[in-house]
Fold:
Amino acid sequence: MIKYVEKYHSHLYYLVGFICFALFLIQRIPGCSLKIGTASPILLLPMVMVAACFLREWAGFWVGFLSGVALDTVGNGSAIFHTVTFILFGVSFGLLFRFLLNRNIKSVVLAGMIGSFVFCFLRWFFLSLLAKDASAG
Structure:
């Protein structure tokens, strides 16, 4: 996989950008979203993790930054939460896969599930609990 990435480096970045844009549109267009009740998935988070895993930490940084800015721009009231967390996830997963884990599908799926759980916990903690404490005080 790494030799393929090195050979078609620029084309792969265009493909990642196009996929991120398509996922962003699917997530934000009403009726196209994969909502279950009031829960809607963050489709860009797995893409940040995949870019970080297979394209290293700098790609994870830039995909996380651009995806986070896009979500925070159209979001309601989260300021820079998605940008900061996506950047941290992109860089940390890139470094984790670069130095500790091998790049196979099992480890990417497991890391994606753990990362999604951590992201949902952080979003609940910062955007729900701290907002309630700030409004109460």
